Amino acid sequence: MDSDRPLLIPLDAPGPLDEKIVGGKAAKLGRLAHAGFRVPKGFCLTIWAYEAFVEDSKIAAAIGMELGRKSMDDMRWEEIWDAALRIRATFLAQPLSDLLRERITEASSGFGASTPLAVRSSAIGEDSAGCSFAGLHESIIGVRGKRALEDAVRLVWASLWSDAALLYRKELALDPAQSRMAVLVQEMVDADRSGVAFARDPRDLRKERAIIESVPGPCSLLVDGAIDPDRWEIDRETNRVITWLPGQREDGDETPLLEPRDLEVILENLLSIERLFHWPPDMEWTGRSASLTLLQARPITTAPPDTDETRNWYLTLRPGDARLKRLRERVVEQLIPELESEGDALAAEDLDLLDDWKLADALEKRSETVAKWKQIYWDEFIPFAHGVRRLATYYNDAVQPEDPYEFVGLLRGQPLLAAQRNRAIAELARQLASNEALRTAIENVLERCAGALQWPDTREALERAGVGAESFIRAFEDLVERFLDITYDHQRLHDETELLLRNLIELCRRPDSLEGGSSAPVDVASLEQRLLDAVGPERHAEAIDIIETGRVSWKLRDDDNLLVSRLESQLLRAIEVAASRLRERGTLTGAGQPKREHSGLLARALRTESSDPIAFEVSDRPLDAEPSTRSMGETPRQLIGQPASPGVGTGLVRCIRGRDDLSRFRSGEVIVCDAIQPTMTHLVPLASAIVERRGGMLIHGAIIARELGIPCVNGVRDAAELLEDGDFVTVDGHLGIVAVGEPEFDLELHFESPGAD
């Protein structure tokens, strides 16, 4: 096999390297080496090595299963990331064949025993003019030792199936099944200056200028955005420096990182490469003047702008460790305190005391505040959520656990706002469970005032009943003020007294739901130690920092939803006050309730004494509701999704599409919804299982379900349309299957998946 389909080819092998065999990156570096440019020595594992590994280890079947659950067009990004994580774990779990090991050991013997290596992707089609995969595939630097080299090779192969790479191929209409990955292994060059350079300005290739950027240390610091680079624009014909912009460095030093001769040598190399390849290059380099070493050269990307923007967006969703740390500091120390403070200030404002003009001002200010924080959420909170995903890959790469979601145990016990709220709800339910007279009094109130319950009346009724309700009333009001000033289904939960009381009654009837779930205990300290042992003492600080970032990221990716929802709730409060005032003077008519997007209209009406009447009618169906896709009499037998929380649960379906469905939910039912939101997790302890349309192991519902030991299957397309209230379902969280209908045999009812506890 080796003669016709070599597994490994040295970079300095005679003759040109075939891009179809070694990928674009390796082929171009090989050609540069043959042309006399200084290139780190190394070798390339060909696509045939990749194919042999995939064939020997049966990985193709695992990839087919992960990507065959449903069309990628129907998969959310979180689902694709999940599939990519499991594929990555599968690659790491498979050993290299003896033949591959022999070839790698033989080729790497040419490096010194202590020489650090760079293991880099060289995918077919990578580094072409129309398809820049820059940043989407793995590059691992500082690799030492035989096992570390083998792991790095597997990780680079696996990065062919990363979420970002899959999404980018989809954008370019490339078939992932036809993709192949070669791997470039080179000695690392230790230099005090590195950077990137462009033979022409990427923003306008017609200009006769080159761009050079430099950072102190390795080039990865620039590529990962860890250090701000010095930047030069240089005239290609005269070598004249047109502009120089110093990078912002912590020590404040603005001395240029490169001397004039360094710039001349870099420009000479750029122009020589352009003559060699007949296209202006984008080049990575390290070293200065005579020691300048080329790490990579590719055509300056000429892909359509929207495609590049799409790739850049994928990259923002997976920031490097340095940016994650900066985001953590900004989010924790600045943004979250500001968000909490703004919510407190809006809640404290007495809107009834404002005149019409000031109420209009308050409406506009609140609308602007919500819009501002929605943008911050998009720009900073969402990228920071990558901290959890970074922890996942870091833990799995180091520990290589059998369960790719073992790292979730490191997130246990975080003081989430939703968890604090649920504990407060559980405590209220325990009070009701231990006070039958109080529970009966509440049930009587609910029966008398169904659909029209007001808390002041309820409080008065409970106080008159003389059932020891004082502590319950105080705790209930504290819960509402602290945790329920949020929105769900475009309405405030703050005023939904009946909904909360009905949930409390259901909870106190199910004692096991008050005990915090039945999931297996997790020894968090042991998991931490397992990771520290795997990475070694020299990386302990790095590992601890990544764990901390992951935990903060998980907590805030949940809390920020609730805190932003509080701002929306306060905007709705102002809308309610404005609507009431306008109805009193006849400016507002109809039975419908204005929504967030109508705040500007209401503000203008408040400022105009004789404005035309505004009519708001009741919508025939909720804005978010979708028409049922289930034909009359047609019931699906089985739905396929992702296994998100292990276990098997049965029960009657309750579809949660809006606020009214929250109050109808009963203990032991199966939640079927678009996604479990932090604003509705108080239902989860009551559920026997969860089925969600939105997929992903790290979305809120999956984590909460795992903590409580409740089976969960997510990523089920059209779940709330294909299933209807009252359907009997069996939810298998091991296999990701939702069986519809009563079991045909008793054995089916008690079925447990292989490997289930």
The quaternary state of the protein chains shown equals single chain
Biggest sheet record: 8 strands, mixed
Cα Rg: 30 Å
Query: Poorly predicted ranges (pLDDT <50, ≥5 residues)?
Result: 127-133, 303-308, 620-627, 745-757
Number of contiguous helices: 25
Helical content class: 40-55%
Our estimate of the beta-strand percent is 5-15%
User: How many beta-strand segments?
Assistant: 23
Structural class: alpha+beta
Question: Which shape, going by the Cα principal axes?
Answer: globular
Averaged pLDDT, please?
A: 84
How do the strands of the widest beta sheet line up side by side? 16-23-22-18-19-20-21-17
Q: Termini distance?
A: 45 Å
Provide the domain count.
Answer: 5
Protein architecture, described:
The chain is an alpha+beta fold. The protein folds into five domains: 8-187, ATP-grasp fold, A domain (Dna Ligase, domain 1, 2-Layer Sandwich), CATH 3.30.1490.20; 193-316, D-amino Acid Aminotransferase, Chain A, domain 1 (2-Layer Sandwich); 321-412 and 522-615, no CATH class; 417-514, no CATH class; 638-749, Glucose Oxidase, domain 1 (3-Layer(bba) Sandwich). 46% of the residues lie in helices and 14% in strands. It has an eight-stranded mixed sheet with strand order 16-23-22-18-19-20-21-17. It has a six-stranded antiparallel sheet with strand order 9-8-7-6-10-11. The protein has a five-stranded antiparallel sheet with strand order 1-2-5-3-4. Strand 20 (689-692), helix 23 and strand 21 (712-714) form a beta-alpha-beta unit. Helix 12 (356-384) runs antiparallel to helix 20 and helix 15 (436-448) crosses helix 16 (455-465). The longest helix has 45 residues, at 540-584. The radius of gyration is 30 Å and the shape is globular. The protein starts with 7 loop residues before the first strand and ends in an 8-residue tail after the last helix. Residues 127-133, 303-308, 620-627 and 745-757 have low confidence and may be disordered.
